[in-house]
Amino acid sequence: MTRITLAYCLLIGALAGCGSQDQANLSLAGQPTVKHQHLSLGVSESVIDPDSGRRGSFGVVCPFSHRNEDDPIMYPDQPGASHQHDYFGATSVAAATKWKSLKNMPNLCKSMGDLSAYWAPTLQANLLDVTPTEMAVYLRTPTEAEPSQVVAPPNGLELISVRSGWTCARTDTPQVTMPSCPSPSTTRLILEYPDCWDGKHLSSSDHFSHVAVSVHGKCPSSHDTMIPQMATELRYELKNYAPDTEYSLSSGELNTVHGDAILFWDQEVMKKEIRSCLMRRVNCDLTWFTSIQG
Amino acid sequence: MKKTFALTTFAVLGAVLASCGGSSSQSDPTIKKVPQDFKTIQAAVDVAVAGDLILIDKGIYAEAVTVETDNIVIRGLDRNEVILEGNYTLDNGIRIVGAKGVVVENMTARNYRANGFFWTGVDGYRGSYLTAVRNGDYGIYAFDSVNGLFEHSYGGGSPDAGFYIGQCKPCNAVINDVIAENNGLGYSGTNASGNLVIANSTFRLNRAGIVPNSLDSEKLSPQEDNIIVGNLVYSNNNALSPAIGAAKLAMGNGILVAGGNRNQILRNRVWDHDIGGIGIVPNYDKSIFWVEGNSVQENDVSDSRVADLALTALDAKANNCFAKNIFATSKPADIENAQPCTGTATAAFDKDPLPLAELINRVKPESGDLKKIPDPELQTNMPDAAKAKAVPMVGAPTPIDIASVMLPAKP
């Protein structure tokens, strides 16, 4: 088994809900084989669901904060070890950042509850960095799930995206390839994260084994704690770039796209949003609508 | 005698229940007083039942209230002195989440990071005698909600809109007798369609005044079927107002239909705009939302630097029409003969057209500082706030008699 294959198996195992013993054994197999393997279950859902009935959600907009070549999940305490990342929300995240420090770290997210750290590789146009205008975070009831199953994720939970897609409009279904969005619409990169948790571990050595992805509204028995399905939407204004611009990421080709997060919320706020918005199947925060054409 | 005693006891108990909110039951609506009975508005809301009146005394309340109970009325005793204070850290003053018929009246919400007063996912809403100022998204707004009324209210200093109704069809909503100033947009209504009337109100000193619009960002596009009647719309060129991108884009326009259809714009007085008094233009998102069937009649429009009346439509067959307006300039030229409401066009559809691309690309001032927006002057209180009956919002608002709404006089 090649190391790449092993990494893939680790991912599939985690997402399929491998037993914790298996995960522990597998996680001993070693560190990730590439700086950030491309991990994807496919393309994200549309961030709103035009015809699927009422599905509760809440959200927050987190402006771009800073960038560096650190990654506190993949390369903790190793400054400069990563490809370049763009950070949103918490304002001084670096390699040495631990989740408990987020509590008192200034945070740009426009919410009274969200103190999380979010990051993703830098988009590059003809190899020059493009700064996103902001990132929107959506938290919603997982697809086909009963909202009563959803609980607040713990502070410190590490998540790495498992699906991605690009769109020009929130009502569109994201696609694998980056579209050329007609001016003045915003180019949007959607990243989706696991929505099932093992109920015990904030992280795991392979960065995935502690979480899984729900299937038809159910979490696997190994990861039976359902948390809100989180999607982040990175927004780029690319209308001033020429049509023949070649886009890539600081992590490599566009297919190396991924997002990372260390969650830290005021737990009372998170619980209230789950109860008020998800349980009542209401779209609660429209702050992420307001930057359209911004 | 024994029976009398029992009755007296019952009566006393009833009085206690009526005055003590914490003792209410499902069948026993009461008045719940803040801070006398409950220290916070949220505490009163959390135990309220349908029919309750939550009566808030003068004071500053640093709260972000969420309402989940149907048919309650939340009222301040003094619109100018019952103040919800966001301190630029709290999200919404009062947020009604999926609860039917909730009424909020006679108070102020200021300095919230998101919104002053916000209804989402509801059937039945009313905001009366409200003041919202310096809130980070919207002042007073309803999303994904139907059967609503905003009246006798003020929305100022929000970078998106002072008043906003979004994503509803049919909305069955009325905005009546409000003032919107110092906002990005006075009114914004994305994909808000059907039986929505904006009447008898003032939209001034915003980046743009009244802007129904279609966007891909919300469901139920395109925007259609609003009636905008009898409003004063002036001097919406305010570079000092906070503004999101869309507000900058729309800056300098009084009434601007951006990608909407079949709206009626009647008997409004509109003046002093850097671009247009009343404009009907397509909106560009991922989709291009063209405009058709809009009707602009009997308005008095003056002092517009580009055109008093303006239209950019796909073609003359789109049935946008202009008639009986008082105006001096238009693009295209001679607009009432180029796009008449009755009869055959006698002027060219495309002569001296609106230079839309140039206007879109015109550089606009960056957002002003929200925190520098002043409080409004003292606003009118609701009558008899202490004793007026609590009336939840059930069903559609009382229709406005459109024919009776006249062109308002200049103030």
Describe the structure.
The complex is a heterodimer of chains A (294) and B (411). Chain A is of the alpha+beta class. Chain A has one domain (3-289). Chain A has helices spanning 3-16, 20-27, 267-278, and strands at 57-68, 85-89, 117-121, 123-125, 128-130, 134-140, 158-160, 163-167, 187-192, 196-197, 211-212, 225-226, 229-236, 247-249, 260-262. In chain A, the strands form three sheets. Chain A has a nine-stranded antiparallel beta sheet with strand order 7-15-3-2-1-6-13-9-8. In chain A, strands 5-4-14 form a three-stranded antiparallel beta sheet, with no helix packed on it. With 411 residues, chain B is mostly beta strands. Chain B has a single domain, classed as Pectate Lyase C-like (3 Solenoid), CATH 2.160.20. Chain B has an 18-stranded parallel beta sheet that branches. An eleven-stranded parallel beta sheet of chain B has the order 4-7-9-11-13-15-18-21-24-29-31. In chain B, strands 25-26 form a two-stranded antiparallel ribbon. In chain B, strand 1, helix 2 and strand 2 form a beta-alpha-beta unit. The longest helix of chain B has 18 residues, at 2-19. Chain B is elongated. The termini of chain B are far apart. Mean pLDDT of chain B is 92; it is low at 1-27. The interface between A and B is large, with 33 and 38 residues.
Silhouette of chain A? globular
Mind telling me the C-alpha Rg of chain A? 18 Å
**Helical segment count of chain A:** 3
Bin the strand percentage of chain B.
Answer: 35-45%
What layout of secondary structure does this protein have?
The complex is a heterodimer of chains A (294) and B (411).
Chain A: H1 3-16, H2 20-27, E1 57-68, E2 85-89, E3 117-121, E4 123-125, E5 128-130, E6 134-140, E7 158-160, E8 163-167, E9 187-192, E10 196-197, E11 211-212, E12 225-226, E13 229-236, E14 247-249, E15 260-262, H3 267-278
Antiparallel strand pairs in A: 1-2, 1-6, 2-3, 3-15, 4-5, 4-14, 6-13, 7-15, 8-9, 9-13, 10-11, 10-12
Chain B: H1 2-19, E1 31-34, H2 41-47, E2 53-56, E3 59-61, E4 65-67, E5 73-76, E6 82-85, E7 92-97, E8 102-110, E9 115-120, E10 123-133, E11 138-143, E12 146-156, E13 161-166, E14 173-181, E15 185-190, E16 196-199, E17 202-204, E18 208-213, E19 226-229, E20 232-234, H3 245-250, E21 253-258, E22 264-266, E23 269-273, E24 276-281, E25 283-284, E26 288-289, E27 295-297, E28 300-304, E29 307-311, E30 321-323, E31 330-331, H4 335-338, H5 356-361
Parallel strand pairs in B: 1-2, 2-5, 3-6, 4-7, 5-8, 6-8, 7-9, 8-10, 9-11, 10-12, 11-13, 12-14, 13-15, 14-16, 14-17, 15-18, 16-19, 17-20, 18-21, 19-22, 20-23, 21-24, 22-27, 23-28, 24-29, 27-30, 29-31
Antiparallel strand pairs in B: 25-26
